[in-house]
Amino acid sequence: MGGMYTSYYADVYPQFVEHLILVSPAGVNASGLRNDQLPWVLRTASKYYITPMSLVRFAGPFGLSLVQWILKKRIAWTPETNIIRSGDMDFEHITMYCYHNWALKPSGEIALYTHLHPGAAAQRRPLNEVLAPAKLRVPLSFLYGGGGDWMPSEHGEALVRQLQNSHYATLRLVPSAGHQVFMDNPSDFNQMLIDAVHEYDRAPVTNLKLLEYHATARFSRRPAAGPVVIRAPCNLVAVRVLILGFFPAPPSLFQSLRCPVMFRSFATVAVLALASIHSAQSIFHDFSVVGEPVDREVTAYDKMVAGVALQDKRNFAPQVGEPICIQDVYRTREGTDEKGLTVYYFEAKGCRVAAPVGFCRKPCNAVPFEVVVTSPTKTQTYDPLLKYLEELKRDRNAKSPFVVESIGILL
Predict the structure, then answer these.
(1) Are residues 130 and 180 located together in one domain of the fold?
(2) 29-75 pLDDT, tens per residue?
(3) Gene3D superfamilies from the xrefs (predicted)?
């Protein structure tokens, strides 16, 4: 049942899940049956919450002996690598653990009737819907027992096949193991679990790998030259970052003021110098609350987390004000902003480029982002991205017309 609860959590709070690894999960597929369609024995047991553990409670003083007898019979069916059968786990310890667990008032075992139907199928919210391609926002790995697991792995395999074209999803079978994978074959299970983690860490960043750092980026046309102050919002706190473009200030500004050439140069240098000082202060000290309102004050710990998050992602995602090469893009959904304009959401694969020139470099470490474009019409938003993509396919050194306007990191 832990796999179902963990998946529900990842569905609601994906920002707190780095990699969802499900070990022999129940409820991957939907049952297709109603409770009134079940055999009368199961309906009666479900009504009164009678579970296999209830036998131990009914046995009273003979409960411990009953548990010992059950475990001896059960262990005889396990592979020789099982930690109880091999002696790595003391039989008396596991007997006492099971007895005191089963003899208590029922709690988690009731979920057998509230969440599952025969065959470990889900009564409601099956995992193949919770983790469907349209909803899954975290990388996913399955581990099943490859020898007698009563959780059907074919449902996990079917889900992985659905996710292969858009998400990071894998499945492994642990040899000589049943549902209690970590007990039946601990050495292979531990190694496969480590391999699953390391494989994802080493996986190339492509559109097959879901947003590793759960970053959203807002792109815009290259802005006017000159230093621009932009906030890079996090979920709770934000660091205000000053982007130095090292471009000459817009000449139209000084021409309108009839400033001499020397004064223009001096003013540009002065603005850049002051901007550098302000940037050094704001990066480390200037935090502000952004995003959804919170019911508590922002603490020093929040500031530290935000700072670490920004620092950790600088090597993977483009920074505010950096040119970005869009290598692949497709539309995901649309909405309306507070001004009534249509907001188009695209998922794009792109990479950082050498600022301020804005040319793509080889090799390009592509990173997927969510692109948010606001415009009255689709033509004004989608077409520039597609045109640039076509240009980039023809010329890998095509100049990028896009820069990162803001980056939101979900803490």
Answers:
(1) yes
(2) 887 777 777 787 877 777 777 788 888 888 888 999 999 999 999 88
(3) alpha/beta hydrolase
